Amino acid sequence: MGLFSKDIKTMEDLHLHGLQDIYYAEQQILKSLDDMIDKATNRELTKAFKAHKGETETQIARLDQAFELLGQKAKGTSCPAIDGILKEAKSIAADISDKAVLDAALIAAAQAVEHYEITRYGTLIAWSQQIGSVAVARLLQISLKEEKVTDKKLNALAQAKVNAKAAQ
Ligand code: FE
Ligand code: FE
Ligand code: FE
Question: How far is the CA of 39 from the centre of ligand 2 (A)?
Fold first, then answer.
């Protein structure tokens, strides 16, 4: 199924496709968080990644619930956008030898991921409300808030410590 495949006819179809997209994305993110936990040196950064790994697992469970509320089977559909963001993160990390610089790069990569999730959840919440799936909107709102808090936490960590250490 292509992104603009003709299988999508209605707003409900488009909404379901969006849910499948973020379902796939969250699963890819969960896998790459293990990698980022391994690579991070700053203890607070490792802690932040571990905490967000737990949240990501809960977010996937929330999406399972959303599919159930809609009477749909939970399944993912390929998301070339998140594949690209994660691929870029991996390749830049592989090119960095200094641990402090690597931490700065890991934060930047993780923030790119959070921003992708923020845009997707924001849209899905608006679409859920539009098609009358208020319960789904409420579930996704919790995940959106977690993504925003994570983005802010990473930002604070970069600005307060990690970037300065990387620049030493
Ligand atoms: Fe997430
Ligand atoms: Fe996508
Ligand atoms: Fe996230």
Answer: 26
